[in-house]
Design a protein that fits this description.
Strand content of chain B: 15-25%
Largest sheet of chain A: 5 strands, parallel
Radius of gyration of chain B: 25 Å
Number of helices of chain B: 12
Oligomer: heterodimer
Helix content of chain B: 25-40%
Structural class of chain A: alpha/beta
Number of strands of chain B: 22
Largest sheet of chain B: 8 strands, parallel, barrel
Shape of chain B: globular
Distance between the termini of chain A: 64 Å
Shape of chain A: globular
Strand order of the largest sheet of chain B: 3-4-7-8-9-10-15-16
Largest interface: A-B, 15 and 14 residues
Number of helices of chain A: 17
Radius of gyration of chain A: 23 Å
Distance between the termini of chain B: 55 Å
Helix content of chain A: 25-40%
């Protein structure tokens, strides 16, 4: 390829063929025989630790037993009964920290049952079968607004629809799925699975999505509260943190936006990619951005993290995904300045840090790494302007909720990344949506919903 | 290095591992491969009279699979050899000539008339074979024609045919027994009365392996219909061990050489059969599943174990466990064990707890200080072994005997003494009832 080693930002660093190869499934689907062997390893534990480790409490031993006994679609029903986004969660859950981390086989032989891959096997079988397991309940006449068609909103909407409530989802973007559609590395979600799952969820009936409708711009919380019997906020985190290093030269961009653009690009090879890329951050966004930019042909990709590797929010497994693809992870580096030439980034200067009595302090030493592209992945924030109604309580910059996902506003529930105390995981967002729906259903079932003017 | 040579009813072989009369021994090609692999002997697949029988051309075999599709039970509806008698006899002659140190025994099955048995046994004698095995065991197909298990289920027939055969030949006569009987002892006694030099058991167990619930027919099926077959493989080993040991300890059959057959897959299986009185063992299913090479592990394993135990020859341990097999009424009711969970080995799957909780004695707790933790409640534990059996980790749960004088926290009584049911005061028929050694406190 002519652009393979071009300096600066350039598209077409890799061929279309190599791109297909690089962005194929990170984890291959299980062949039916592999699935059977994998399923037979499950011990069918009593009060299984894997279930306790799953935010949505999928009955894992049961669904694995169903796979082992030749009924993957029945297994999928067990999964979806607990987690309607079981197909995506099978692909994006950090299972090494959740179900598989708790698997007793992990302690007995350092090799957990492959729960994630088995879950994918079952949900793939369901999607391939074309069977719809759920349908909307008898209409209750209640109308509920859901803000955001991401995992929290969809999970909530699906449960509400099954209970017979009429749901309208307001989604700011042109497509649904939230981060599943815009924020996950492409090799984890091959086959347009996010849209396939979205379609499956919507096929339950009783849910309409209004695309291109953003809270704070096209709709307001006060308006929704007036028009609907209940409101669920699952708007995610619309903003990203900046480094605050003054003028940002060309070539420096937001990793979240980069990943979204990559996911939406019909041809990924056209994306302008640097030859020498630095990704700043230590979470999943940093890993996904760094790995994908490497796979698109960047020669040298470095993740710079201010703390130690062991403190990175990205799991060891995720770090390895990046490392085996050639990404270098460097620790104890805090960016202090962009280097530039003619308004174009040429490097980043870092201050080295170390731990001293539990605190991260600069060592006084500085170093500069050359770069022609810098991606910032240091966290996302709730855009408070979206919720400028007043009345909502916040906590650590996110919406404060109780265990049932109730906000401080009567008739308003919230869940997913936009609420405080969350773990920023798809599966946790699904669990929130489910919990909120249960709470909403219970509230609307009451003869009167005491604190809701519209009831 | 242990000497594995064995002499079974006067037939010597370099090791106790023989291939049973079955598909693996149907022709010279297979038998020669087996001998090259190291098998000590074969029982040639059952010969019959010409014209040869005809086998089905649909599936002959079925199986039960365990985890990882391991074949744990195997079933067949194959009949005796379907090759002309003369072809088999010529091959047997050649193979025995080429492999003089290996045992070559010929299995036979002909209609229940003396001239038929005399005629075939005379022809086998001319091959130089080491002995004959009378197939009174095949439970399918041939039994419908009055042969195989149809003979083996009638002790009088066993005795009669055995006697004919003994009268017709100088060769050792082994009688192969069917397990499809209420008790294995009458057939074994009959064989002995008829003059059998040895018995071999078990033949296959009557079985229907499954049902094709799409076609609503037994599985496997032949053009839509199925029939019962003979089951073998590791699932039948316990049946075989019970029968072998019954013959080994029965006064009327004690001392009759036994060739143990039934689910032998590895050296340890062989050691178990031999400990219960088998002089040698015969294998079929494991060879059909894994090929002849398994005998290497069997030979090496048995030899290694014998060295560890100081057994120089198989005779040193054959039958050693027989005196320890007894009737329930002779078991010590004053013996008490309690399950013990090794917390270092425990992986906290909880199967011991749920099995005990749902189906047994509620003797294993699942929480300690709010944490997942499985521990035996000695006050409830009856020592039944369920937990140890269902535990996926070997030796994690063991049954620990209480020592003399220790208090059984379930009964509150001190442990000691030795009362069987025959001496137990709860037994209305006890002739000499005795109280517990230690009185309640």
């Amino acid at each position: 390829m002519s652009n393979e080693l071009a300096a600066g930002l350039a598209g077409h660093r890799i061929s279309a063929e190599l791109c297909r190869e690089n962005f194929k499934d990170l984890v291959a689907p299980l062949h039916p025989n592999e699935a059977r062997v994998a399923a037979e390893r499950c011990l069918f534990c009593y009060d299984a630790p894997c279930v306790a480790a799953c935010p949505t409490e999928i009955d894992i031993p049961l669904f694995i037993r169903q796979i082992a006994n030749g009924l993957p679609v029945a297994a999928a029903k067990t999964i979806l009964d607990a987690n309607i986004m079981g197909a995506m969660c099978a692909r994006v859950c950090p299972t090494e920290n959740l179900c598989e981390g708790a698997c007793v086989r992990e302690s007995s032989e350092a090799r957990a049952v492959e729960i994630g891959r088995l879950q994918r096997h079952a949900t793939d079988a369901l999607l391939a079968s074309g069977r719809q397991l759920y349908r909307a309940g008898s209409p209750t006449g209640k109308r509920i607004a859901v803000v955001g068609a991401g995992p929290a909103g969809l999970s909530c909407a699906h449960a509400l629809a099954r209970a017979g409530h009429q749901v309208t989802i307001y989604e700011a973007r042109p497509k649904g799925g939230g981060l599943n559609e815009y924020g996950i590395a492409a090799y984890k979600v091959t086959g347009d699975i996010a849209q396939a799952e979205l379609a499956y969820i919507l096929a339950v009936g009783g849910i309409t999505i209004e695309y291109g409708k953003a809270l704070g711009r096209d709709i307001s919380l006060a308006g929704l509260r007036a028009d609907y019997d209940a409101v669920f906020l699952g708007l995610g985190l619309g903003g990203t943190n900046g480094l605050g290093l003054g003028d940002v030269p060309a070539g420096v961009s937001d990793a979240v936006a980069f990943i979204a653009a990559l996911r939406q690009a019909p041809d990924k090879t056209v994306l302008p990619i640097g030859r020498n890329v630095i990704v700043i951050g230590g979470g999943m966004t940093a890993i996904d951005a760094a790995t994908q930019v490497k796979l698109l042909g960047a020669e040298c990709v470095t993740i710079a993290y201010r703390r130690s590797k062991s403190e990175m929010p990205a799991s060891l497994y995720e770090q390895e995904v990046a490392q085996v693809r050639g990404v270098l992870i460097r620790e104890h580096l805090v960016p202090v300045a962009f280097e530039q030439a003619g308004g174009v980034v040429s490097g980043v200067t870092f201050a080295r840090t170390r731990r001293e009595e539990g605190r991260l302090i600069p060592t006084g030493e500085r170093m500069t790494l050359a770069a022609d592209q810098v991606l910032i992945a240091i966290g996302q924030t709730l855009l408070a302007s979206d919720l400028a109604d007043g009345g909502l309580s916040f906590e650590s910059g996110r919406i404060a909720v109780d265990a049932a996902c109730r906000t401080s506003l009567p008739g308003v529930w919230a869940g997913g990344d936009c609420v405080a105390g969350g773990s920023d995981l798809t599966v946790a967002a699904v669990a929130d949506g489910k919990a909120a729906a249960a709470s909403i259903i219970a509230a609307l079932q009451g003869a009167a919903v005491p604190h809701h003017a519209g009831a | 290095m242990a000497d594995l040579r064995t002499s079974f009813a006067g037939i010597t072989s370099p090791n106790p591992f023989w291939l049973a009369s079955a598909p693996p021994t149907d022709k010279a090609y297979n038998v020669v491969r087996a001998f090259k692999a190291g098998w000590g002997g074969v029982v040639w697949k059952t010969l019959g009279e010409d014209p040869p029988i005809v086998n089905v051309s649909g599936p002959r075999y079925g199986a039960i699979h365990g985890s990882d599709r391991r074949v744990i039970g195997f079933n067949n509806i194959e009949l005796i050899t379907d090759r002309p008698l003369e072809v088999n006899l010529q091959e047997i002659t050649q193979v025995k000539r080429d492999w003089p140190d290996r045992a070559v025994v010929v299995s036979l099955m002909v209609p229940c008339q003396e001239p038929n048995w005399t005629a075939i046994i005379k022809r086998v004698e001319q091959t130089g074979a080491d002995g004959v095995e009378l197939n009174f065991g095949c439970p399918h197909g041939m039994s419908e024609r009055g042969m195989g298990a149809a003979v083996g289920q009638v002790p009088e027939y066993i005795e009669m045919v055995t006697r004919w055969c003994k009268a017709a030949t100088r060769m050792p006569v082994i009688v192969k027994l069917t397990p499809n009987v209420a008790s294995i002892l009458p057939p074994a006694e009959a064989a002995k009365r008829g003059g059998a030099d040895a018995v071999s058991l078990i033949n296959t167990v009557n079985a229907l392996m499954g049902v094709d619930i799409d076609q609503m027919a037994p599985w496997p099926h032949i053009d839509g219909y199925g029939t019962h077959g003979g089951m073998c493989g590791s699932v039948v080993k316990p049946i075989a061990l019970n029968m072998v040991s019954a013959i080994a300890r029965h006064p009327a059959t004690q001392g009759l050489p036994i060739s143990g057959i039934g689910g032998i897959e590895k050296w340890r299986d062989a050691a178990e059969f031999m400990a219960l009185g088998a002089v040698n063992v015969q294998v079929c299913t494991a060879a059909m599943v894994y090929g002849f090479k398994i005998v290497e592990e069997m030979i090496a394993g048995l030899s290694e174990w014998m060295d560890q135990k100081g057994y120089a020859r198989p005779e040193d341990f054959v039958g050693r466990a027989v005196p320890r097999k007894t009737e329930w009424q002779h078991l010590n009711l004053d013996y008490v064990v309690k399950a013990h969970i090794d917390q270092d080995l425990c992986i906290k799957c909880g199967r011991c707890h749920i099995g005990c909780e749902d189906t047994s004695h509620q003797a294993i707790s699942s929480l300690k200080d709010g944490q997942r933790h499985f521990e035996v409640i000695e006050e409830e534990c009856v020592g039944c072994n369920l937990c140890a059996v269902v535990c996926p980790i070997e030796n994690c749960i063991t049954m620990v005997p209480l020592r003399e004088g220790e208090v059984d926290r379930r009964t509150g009584l001190r442990v000691g003494g030795h009362r069987t049911w025959l001496e137990h005061p709860n037994n209305p028929m006890a002739t000499n009832p005795r109280p517990a050694k230690h009185a309640a406190e």
